[in-house]
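hey so u asked for the seq, here:
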Amino acid sequence: MPRVIIYSSFVLLLLLAVPPAIVAKIRSTPSEGRPIHIVQDMDYQSKFKTQTPNPLFADDRAMRQPVPGAVARGEVFDDPHFHEGTLDDGSWASEFPARIDVDLEFVERGKQRFGIYCAVCHGDAGYGDGIVNERAMTLMANADGPLQGTAWVQPKSVHAPEVAAQPVGQIFHSISKGIRNMAGYEAQIATEDRWAIVAYVRALQLSQNAPAGLRAEATR
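ran it, structure tokens below
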């Protein structure tokens, strides 16, 4: 074979190795430039932030509303008594939902959940004297610097007359959705466990405000 062909083939092989080397170099070197996308897919498209207009839709809203009647799989809240603490007429439920069996085990479950989520603010006995309140009161008593001028609202006692008079559905709703300065715990506590907390709150209220006759009978 003539030497010119051998040399030419060798040079051609070297030239063919140049593009892969360039590609490898580019891919391994950080760059501030935007990458080149031959197939765009959905890498580059319009972005609309929350509460901004979007002319693509007839209502000009970027935030789309749920499809009417659509519910998440496994989340059909067709029992307002169980899920909201209300009856069909919208009034607060005065009894526990029929699907719940309020027995000692259920109340013990509520005591456990109360100790995890509620006692830190409301206290073990529900008087609003939990460790968070104690810490806040100490800070307020010695407030200076960034804390000066701030205020602390003590958590509500579950034994307060206005709370003790509430139907169980209203207490359940307050635990779920929150009330005043208290945030709701719907996302953190399962529905049945929130009812268990209500049962334990009722047990706390009864233990601290039992009629004299009932207390005398309990001591026999």
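The longest helix spans residues 3-28. Strands lie at 178-179, 182-183.
lmk if thats what u needed
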